[in-house]
Amino acid sequence: MGFSFSSIRYGYLRITFLLLVSCILFTFFATPVDSSVLKPKTEHDGCSALKHFHDYQSKCAYLKTIDPCASQGFIDYLSLLYCNFEKFPLLGQSLLFLWLLALFYVLGHTASEYFCSSLESLSKLLNLSPTVAGVTLLSLGNGAPDLFASLVSFMGEDSKGTYGVGLNTVVGGSSFVTCVVVGIISIALRSRGVRIERSAFVRDVCFFCAAIGSLGLILVYGKINFWGALGFCSLYAVYVAFVYLSWRFGGEGGEFDLESVHKRGSLSEPIFQREDLDDGVVDEEHRQRHYYWKLVVWVMTLPIYLPRRLTIPVVSEAKWSKPTAVGSVTFAPVLLSLLWNSKRSPTSVEARVVYLTGCSVGIVLGLIAISTTKKSNPPKKWLLPWLAGGFVMSMTWSYISAQELVALLTSLGYIFGVSPSILGLTVLAWGNSIGDLITNVTMALHDGDEGAQVAVSGCYAGPIFNTLFALGISLVGCAWEVYPLSIVIKTDPRLLESLGFLVVGLVWSFLVLFSNRMRLGGVMGVGLLVIYLASLSIRILQTVGDSY
């Protein structure tokens, strides 16, 4: 990537940018929240009473008398199902599951195609060192789905206790990556005798154990104030500083390349759309089938591709298009004004002022883009405003997708009588972690020993980011809104059990690697998979037992 760390004049710019990222994430999503947000539902909660009704018509009538059960998104999924699909319940449920898959695709695709692209370009522009970029921008890009899902779960005017979804998603994703992904890598590389760097592994495992221990203390204590949440989130800054010092003075991670992590297995390039097929083997018939299949996929994804393409500025050489670039800077302020007014009456004076401002700013930016850009190539000057715009708008779309995803999972929990927390531990965690599975396993298999080292390191750096930064900044936002009071988090023994199994997996990896001279092997991989399956099975059996 050509990172340069020798020039001191970029020092203040780097620090300012990293602080700006944190401030944007905190202020942009810190919507007003009531102190009751983090109080769990009781059996007398109006939404829980849905299980006492046995037909769609009565459930629809009841839903009209209470507030929406999942208020994070823009769609009331329970009313949509029970009030419109009374005669075709299976069709309605199937459509909800298809929409769930679409939301997972949009969230992952937005993160990899737009969010990571903006981060990589910003890291080049700011001349960030590869190690600093790896533990900040790379972790932010890979952890974007978990970050936004956590923010949505904790924040909002009426989250109705969906903090359990956020906590279980972070813990479930961490367990999946550190047990399943690391286990698969270990089994796949058992015959190659790949060695893992001892100091980097010890550093990551120790910091991750510290993060898990801190989270466990918060759950046991049952509440946390603003300063405690800020201290919890700041542990990630300590980790970043430690990684940088290890690289600067200890020689760790000297060959780390940010771009190589995103070149393989990216969600932005689905497997069935890739062009890396052997041209000499694939005959004309297969080529035509591949073309028609790509055309079908393109038509199916167009409704969720076009709105993002017309609102997220992109200035890369490969994807540059002046008409879409002009359209993106024109429609982006309009989209932001629509989101700003989503909770207001569209006929109010405040809403009209916001709409007028958004449209005016969009027209001005569009005219500037027309006059300052060329049709043949993206702009070479004033790149920072373009990249910052792409960064903000990709965050906006990721947040919108996460809002709908959490709202839909909460609604599915009420529909099928399953706790939203267990859906966060499984469905949401798996969906957000599939990118890590594809990327890290592919890199470990095809990029040699160095790729295996980076892949394994990423399996621990990602969960550290999700636990300390993604969850931490959510707690900071909630605690700030009730400052100087503390936010109350109900102690969940089952979540503590999941944390315990997560620690067991880390200890198992530590002991087996050290006994095997830091070589990855099948014993380590099988053991990690068994630990994950045991943890998941116990949690599912407990949930099934609650339903009886």
Features:
548 residues, transmembrane, ion transport, NaCa_Exmemb
Explain what this protein looks like in three dimensions.
Helix 3 (77-84) packs antiparallel against helix 4 (89-125), helix 6 packs across helix 14 (383-416) and helix 7 packs parallel to helix 15. Helix content is 71%, strand content 1%. With 548 residues, the chain is mainly alpha-helical. It starts with 10 loop residues before the first helix and ends with a helix. The radius of gyration is 24 Å and the shape is globular. The longest helix is centred in the N-terminal third of the chain and has 37 residues, at 89-125.
Largest sheet: 2 strands, antiparallel
Query: Which structural class should the secondary elements be placed in?
Result: mainly alpha
How many beta-strand segments?
A: 2
Biggest sheet: strand arrangement: 1-2
Radius of gyration: 24 Å
Give the DSSP E fraction (strand runs of 2 or more residues). under 5%
The poorly predicted ranges are 1-44, 253-282
Order of helices and strands: HHHHHHHHEHHHHHHHHEHH
Helix coverage percent of residues?
over 70%
User: Rough shape?
Assistant: globular
Alpha-carbon distance between the two ends: 57 Å
Mean pLDDT equals 75
Provide a count of the helices: 18
